[in-house]
Amino acid sequence: MDAVFSPADHHAMALAIAASREALAAGDMPFGATLSSADGQVLWVARNAQISTQDCMAHAETVLVQQVQRELGPQALQGATVHASGEPCAMCSGALFWAGVRRVVYAASTEDIAHSLGGPVLPVTAAQVLGSAQPQVSVQGGLQRDAAVQVLQAKGLAADAAS
Known about the structure:
Blueprint: H1 7-25, E1 32-36, E2 42-47, H2 60-71, E3 81-86, H3 90-99, E4 103-108, H4 110-117, H5 126-130, E5 138-141, H6 145-162
Parallel strand pairs: 3-4, 4-5
Antiparallel strand pairs: 1-2, 1-3
Helix pairs in contact: 1-6, 4-6
């Protein structure tokens, strides 16, 4: 059954994809994430910073968790939704769970990311990591997938041109 996404979901995902474009423009990996409260209010937007900070763990989702905890407090993450331009990896899925996020919505799948960017692949999906979590975490994918994949492909094309 296809997921049903609200207008608030679409808005939050558009912000995450815009953040992925900003990350790409800054020379980082093309990923963004948005935190929304349980009632759909956007609370924070973050982007990947792996290259600019020389931190392999600075994925958009982990940057988001760290910034929100510092600026809004850990309670802002409790029961919240994260919209990610790319499916969160195992590390990010775990970080979201431990932060108290209870819903994850992504655009491009792990397969889309691997196909667009190449390179190393950790072949574990967010649903596999979070599927048996207690408390439960809802994972839904494919929202605005084409827009997110376009950003990923722009990174792939830039990498091909540089080589």
